[in-house]
Design brief:
Length: about 150
């Protein structure tokens, strides 16, 4: 497993950030990094009585696709999403990713932490996935700052 965390101070509340995460029209603000594609389009399917289990079907700017499923949600505190059902090339090297959003109050506002776990298919897939993780981390760092401070973006 490959893990990394990015953090940013936020001028908006964790509740507002969570609201924006569930607004699929905002997902295209993820622009990618270098050869890592951004997000082009997202559709959402929600269960009747719960946010947990909500599925996001993501199409990236390079035509690749994956699914993101809400695993756990505690509004304003923590959100855990599992990414799976990748198309090529990621399906060849990873089984799934876990993205965790954690929020904390600070003296000057809020702090957002995004932690990723990337699960390689096997030992041979670890190296290319590690290289890709560097691109993902760069893109996530930029995106987290944009979400946390929309007036500065």
């Amino acid at each position: 497993m490959i893990t990394f965390t990015v953090a940013a101070d936020s001028s908006i509340s964790p509740e507002q950030i969570c609201k924006e995460i569930f607004d699929v029209d905002r997902w295209s603000s993820f622009k990618g990094y270098g050869v890592l594609p951004g997000i082009a389009k997202v559709t959402m399917k929600s269960p009747a009585n719960s946010i947990v289990g909500t599925e996001f079907y993501v199409e990236n700017t390079d035509g690749s696709k994956h699914k993101e499923t809400v695993q756990s949600f505690n509004v304003g505190k923590c959100l855990i999403i599992k990414m799976s059902d990748f198309t090529s090339p990621i399906k060849n090297i990873a089984t799934h990713f876990i993205e965790r959003w954690d929020f904390e109050n600070t003296n000057s506002g809020y702090r957002v932490h995004r932690t990723f776990e990337l699960h390689p298919k096997n030992a041979f897939a670890s190296l290319p996935l590690w290289l890709i993780s560097w691109l993902i981390k760069q893109a996530v760092a930029v995106h987290t700052r944009q979400i946390a401070n929309p007036k500065q973006a």
